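Budget justification, computational time. The allocation requested in the original proposal was used primarily to generate structure tokens for proteins on the priority list. As evidence of use, we reproduce two of the resulting records. The first is shown immediately below.
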Amino acid sequence: MASINLIESFTEFKEAENIDRPTLMKVLEDVFKTLLRKKYGEDDNFDVIVNTEKGDLEIIRRRMIVDDGAVENPNTEVPYSEAIKIEPDYQVGEELYEEVNIQDFGRRAILAAKQTLSARIGDLKKNILLKKYGDRVGEIISGEVYQVWKKEILLLDDEGNELILPKFEQIPTDYFKKGEHVRAVVKKVEMRNNTPQIILSRTHPSFLAKLLEIEVPEIFDGLIVIRKIVREPGERAKVAVESYDDRIDPVGACVGMKGSRIHGIVRELRNENIDIINFTNNIQLLIQRSLTPARISHMDVDNENLYAAVYLKPDQVSLAIGKKGVNIKLACELTGYEIDVYRDEEMIETEYDVDLDEFSDEIEEWIIDELKRIGCDTARSVLELSAEELVRRSDLEEETIREVRRILQEEFNEDAAEA
């Protein structure tokens, strides 16, 4: 029987990755039975036999042989006079099996069948891809950079499937070239315009969690558990870990001998500073650890309002706040408490300073009162906090804060010049 150029299509379907034979057979059978229903009105007396290995098929039509003139349904019955032309030994009451020539369906119907087959197999591939990566959300995969665009990067996995790494899911200092291999975590799988989209991320906390799992066998074995991860991608990350075995130091295990385990992760994350801390249910101790590398003098904790006022030596304030306020921001996220840092007045060494009230002729009184409200009653106490931190903690506008800092800084500049 003529294969009407469907062999090429069958070969494509046969080679379709991960499509099991029964599913493929069912799809092909459904498509051709639809074709039969359109031509004959029914398909119950047709058998579609598919050979996906050779790339061909047969359609067998079954009809009951009846007496001449007794045919009620030409699709299911055939007169005796026609049956004996095919095989003289046929008798009334027997079934006649004959092969249907696909070309009899017409060129348009055949083309429609090929298009339907392509669409169905495409849907199968999409569903398989969705399931495959849907089950791998949160796992690290590697892909090769195929195309670099302004807003995203297109990667290909080992099977040629397309993966998307958006710009906002990249570490700020990431830079990739075509052909380079990139590791990322599968963040989500979604359908866009009827096409599966596998979205990757290098900034999600789960990426760091999986990297730690790979590098630290104790985490993989479940002896150490990661309680929480917070990140400012490319800047700093804080990881709270806990050990289920008293003999294992969770922080030491994660860092490794001379930092051997953590160094590889730091390089992967573009030199992101990673603070590994020992988790505890003692919230004061957790806050103290979360503000590392700063050393806290003492603190006041309001558990009802989830607030903590932390007091430090003057030289520790900037460490607690961190570059661009990142350290204190991550500490707040890790503990779930709003943390404000203050200079511990008892620990302040004798140092030239000026009360804010001395600047009343240059700074409005309500601004001074607002700064005092957040614990800044001297010029140095204001200057030790960044403009961003002052804006966050007070009700003052950024422009006002910057003008105040300029006025206060000039005081110390003039003093230094006179000296």
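The second record produced under the same allocation is shown here.
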Amino acid sequence: MTIRASALVRTYGSVKALDGLDLEVAEGTVLGLLGPNGAGKTTTVRVLTTLLKPDSGSAEVAGVDVLRQPGRVRELIGVSGQYAAVDEYLTGRENLELVGNLYHLGRRRARERAGELLAQFRLEDAGDRPVKTYSGGMRRRLDLAGALVARPKVLFLDEPTTGLDPRSRNDMWQVIAELVADGATVLLTTQYLEEADRLADLIVVVDQGRVIARGTADELKAQVGGEVIELVVGSADQVPVATEVLERVGRGAVTTDPHTRKLSVSVEGSSTGAAALVEALTALGERQVDVLDVAVRRPTLDDVFLTLTGHVAEESRAGSPQKEVVA
């Protein structure tokens, strides 16, 4: 395994950011690390990239012990975090050349590599502008480019596409896929199931510092049913009746939004969504419930997390001591 973590524990005061977390990432693969805000994803990345020491447990990257040889680990990895770690007073090109010099590439090779990456990330036209003039998406692309200057074989990408527009996100996905095709190993933290679905060979779900599920995207979706029924009823007083009906045709808890009068429930198997919807609409019609809108869709990340953890993936834990240091 290129990345291995065993029984990692890290506390902040009375809060356990990591509570015996285990991970393994095979060479040349992408592990998607999913979890809500405060689950421990970023703390995991910080431990594995030598930025934070665990209270207990062990970890290795490319066969190198993270605690005993942190300097060697840093030589082998590239890191792109949630917030672009770039100097806004330097140009994009100068930022990349600076990283190249820190990796001892030599002035000429650092300059060449900066030009290659500016082209790869569609930043050529902005390469000689100060980064403070860049948009948020441009900064994120420059940050990932910086992580690739030394062509590392192990990459840690902590929510690299958060805040990007659809085109930039797709571009980033393409770059990551190409890196893996060339043999890179990637640990990717994300709140987007579609991102993990597209990129990850294996997904690990964490919550409260513990691994609570492992599998492919399809396997995780199967845990909440093959499809989800959604409907909107005509008035607030019809929500309880609609909830009762959906509880009969679906599996698990019915999610309701009292403000929009929208209800949703998972159903078993990918082929039963239409049949369950017909059954629900028939029962609702018999009970004179007005249905304004209906849909059958595949499960989303929120559905997975609602089933696994009881809350959605984007939910913040207000007041948690982890809020400033983990995601």
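A brief technical remark on that second record: The CA atoms of residues 96 and 114 lie 5 Å apart.
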